[in-house]
Automatic annotation (TrEMBL):
The keyword Cytoplasm does not apply. It holds the Pfam family BPD_transp_2. It comes from Streptomyces palmae. The chain crosses the membrane at residues 51-67, 83-103, 110-127, 133-150, 157-175, 201-222, 243-259, 265-285, 313-334, 340-359, 371-394, 400-416. The keyword Transmembrane applies. This is Xylose transport system permease protein XylH. It is a multi-pass membrane protein. Keywords: Cell inner membrane, Cell membrane, Membrane, Sugar transport, Transmembrane, Transmembrane helix, Transport. GO terms for cellular component: plasma membrane.
Length: 426
């Protein structure tokens, strides 16, 4: 009858079970300890290699301090307003690059696609009399389709993304030259739709402050609803004091930016477009199943495949998105100079778009990053360019400095990943 004997817990085990306390998430303990807890948690993350956006924020603050010290016009309302428009074109391209990097891949065609999009709009609207808005839709559609074509070759046929997009870089550069024809350059209507993307300002004082207030309110509401949802689910949530402090810091920064912009010509339309795109794609990446699939592929392709994710479809869609954003960026760049030329999409544009994503914190190894990397990285690159121009320093020096910043970002990323693996978190 030994098989029917059921072992009973000893009195010692029963006492231990009664005295057991459910495991508490360390983040809750940190918040209960107040400021001391946050400082200890911050130090723990640094030691574990979880640096987040800290390096780029510190670097950006240092860059602004140095240039302001050398020339007090750097933080003037006009220069900051010009900087806010300068970063938008390449920044939009960089948003698409972020998604590709999250897969652990690269897209070398975005520069050529941006120039081709500008050429399509110019030829259709100027040479053939097509309404500008329709020409813009055609250019955006072309960017998405050609980007998806890269994705098909990569996902379905197995050609490395580096090779596919390198071929695209050459092919779409040639197509752009073919579209523009022998003229080499086509001027756009300076009062047209495309030109207004970077020339229009919301000059009313209430516009900039209203946009800042709306952003702050939206951030608070999103954090509050997220905390309430997590609390209802019985998982760790951000306390109200924490939300209020974060919202207060954001409010100070945005209201200061609004004040500076109003000191010049007001809120630029280009900046509004950029921020709206960032918010939209940040939501897609962090709050939708599609975004989680992109991150999953970047973390481990085989694990994602076994989890039922359509790997090929996600890859194709990401490259289509990259092509679409390249076209968007190309239109903004064309808007600034109100023309499409043979030189559009060439030079350092490709490298700056990739560098912005990496400098801003997106990992070259895939699976880690944020669309806000495009903003942070472009602020660094744009600030260097703006400061160098004010000081009269040659572009060659600017390129060397930007290259050094990019190398530093990659080194920090590599060291961070190694540290996290050593700490058992990578």
């Amino acid at each position: 009858m030994t098989g029917d004997i059921i072992e009973k817990d000893s009195p010692k085990d029963e006492a231990a079970a009664r005295g057991a306390v459910a495991a508490v998430d360390p983040r809750l303990l940190v918040r209960e300890e107040g400021l001391k807890g946050y400082l200890l948690e911050f130090w723990r993350k640094l030691r574990g290699g979880d640096l987040g956006s800290l390096p780029v924020v510190v670097g950006l603050a240092a860059i602004w301090a140095v240039f302001q010290w050398r020339d007090d016009a750097f933080l003037s309302p006009k220069n900051l307003s010009d900087l806010s428009i300068l970063i938008v074109g390449t920044g939009l391209i960089s948003v698409g690059v972020v998604f590709v990097l999250l897969l652990g891949e690269i897209d070398l065609s975005v520069g050529s696609l941006s120039g081709l999009a500008a050429a399509i709009v110019a030829v259709l609207s100027v040479n053939h009399g097509v309404p500008e808005w329709l020409a813009v839709l055609a250019a955006l559609g072309a960017g998405a389709v050609l980007g998806a074509l890269h994705g098909v070759f990569f996902a379905k046929i197995g050609v490395p993304a580096f090779v596919v997009t390198l071929a695209g870089l050459l092919a779409w550069e040639g197509l752009k030259q073919q579209v523009l024809g022998t003229t080499g350059s086509i001027s756009m209507d300076e009062d047209g739709f495309v030109a207004s993307l970077t020339s229009h300002y919301f000059s009313q004082v209430a516009a900039a402050y209203g946009a800042a207030g709306l952003a702050v309110a939206g951030y608070f509401l999103a954090q509050f609803l997220d905390a309430r949802r997590r609390r209802a689910a019985g998982i760790p949530f951000r306390p109200m004091a924490d939300i209020l402090v974060r919202t207060g810091v954001l409010a100070v920064l945005l209201l200061a930016a609004a004040w500076k912009l109003n000191e010049y010509m007001g809120l630029p339309l280009a900046l509004v477009i950029f921020v709206v795109v960032l918010v939209l794609f940040d939501f897609v990446l962090r709050r939708t199943p599609y975004g989680r699939k992109v991150l999953a592929l970047g973390g481990n392709v085989e694990a994602a495949r076994r989890a039922g994710i359509n790997v090929d479809l996600v890859r194709i869609s990401v490259f289509a998105l990259s092509g679409l954003m390249a076209a968007c960026g190309g239109l903004i760049i064309a808007s600034r100079i109100t023309s499409a030329a043979q030189s559009a999409g060439t030079g350092t544009l490709l490298m700056e778009a990739i560098a912005a994503a990496v400098i801003g914190g997106t990992s070259l190894f895939g699976g880690r990053g944020s669309v806000w990397s495009a903003l942070l990285g472009m602020l660094v690159i744009g600030s260097i360019a703006s400061g160098m121009a004010l000081l009269g320093i040659a572009t060659s020096v600017q390129n060397m400095i930007t290259g050094g910043v990019l190398l530093a970002a990659v080194v920090i990323d590599s060291v961070s990943r190694r540290t996290q693996r050593s700490a058992g978190r990578g």
